[in-house]
Amino acid sequence: MLNKIRILVIVFIISLIFGITFVAVRHSVSQPIVPAYIPPEAVSWQILKSKIEQRVYRFPGIVGIMVKDLKTGVAIKYNSDRLFSSASLVKIPLMVAIFQREQEGKLELGRCLILQRQNKVGGSGKIKFCRPGAKFTVFDLLKRMITESDNTATNMLADYLGYDYINSVFIQIGLQKTNFYRPIMDFKIRELGIENYTTPEEMSYLLEQLYNGKLVGERASKIMLDILGQQKINDRISRGLPRGWRVAHKTGLQREVCHDVGIVYHPLGDFTICVLTDKIYNFRIAKRLISD
User: Strand, helix or coil at 252?
Assistant: First the structure.
């Protein structure tokens, strides 16, 4: 009798397990797992990210990249927080500092500055060919600094504002790693370990703030973007773009570094594109990478 009861209990347990398993299997068959929907835009960004990484891996040098869709906020980053020697990219936040000083009522864009012999340096720009004593308005120097990357104009403006004030504005506008500690083209100071630095991410942030009219004010942001849009050095980001694509950007070039950062405008979306390179020995290859 006891054995019969044991057998009935075992049969009952087996039947119960079988029934639960059958229901679970039937439920899984009737309710197939549907993969999560992935928007085509996300797929496109992943493909782009993969292509960029493949291109960077083959590059003979160090690369920092920040590409951001200003409409959606989607971004591609590669070494975006790494410090790079800023070269002439520092001229963008310096321009912001000039407009900030104007807003404070302590500078007039029409004010004339006198060229001093110690301001004259080599590299980009034509002011270095002028005689000491020549006069230029602040606004003229500012435009030359950005559109022609004039180094002498930059040093004149930096001396007038003062480096302490300039760096205080950088901090005020949210730049934590970008600095301006030495004059442009002063390689003697650079050899002592004093360098101007920035990052792709901070350059992208700065451009986005301008785009949204949040630097100094809407009027000033609009003027600064307009000046960046008049850039005369167009052998990097601008090269190869289809006609009708507007770009507001600033290049940077010095020993072993080659950069370009800017905003590319298009009817389907506007983007910041910031590409910084270091430890390079062939500017042509670096410029091609940025263009690609």
Answer: strand
Q: How many C-beta atoms lie closer than 10 Å to residue 78's C-beta?
A: 16
Q: Residue 5, Cα to own-chain centre: how many angstroms? A: 79
Decide: 211 and 225 in contact? Cβ < 8 Å.
yes
* Interval 233-286: pLDDT, tens: 999 999 978 888 899 999 999 989 999 999 999 888 899 999 999 999 999 999
Note the pTM of the prediction, 2 decimals: 0.85
Alpha carbon of residue 32 to chain centroid: 44
Q: How far apart are CA 222 and CA 265, in angstroms?
A: 14
The letter for the amino acid at 138 is V
Q: Looking at the chain, which runs of residues are DSSP E strands?
A: 62-69, 75-78, 84-85, 112-114, 135-137, 197-198, 246-254, 257-265, 271-278
How confident is the model at residue 249, as a pLDDT?
98
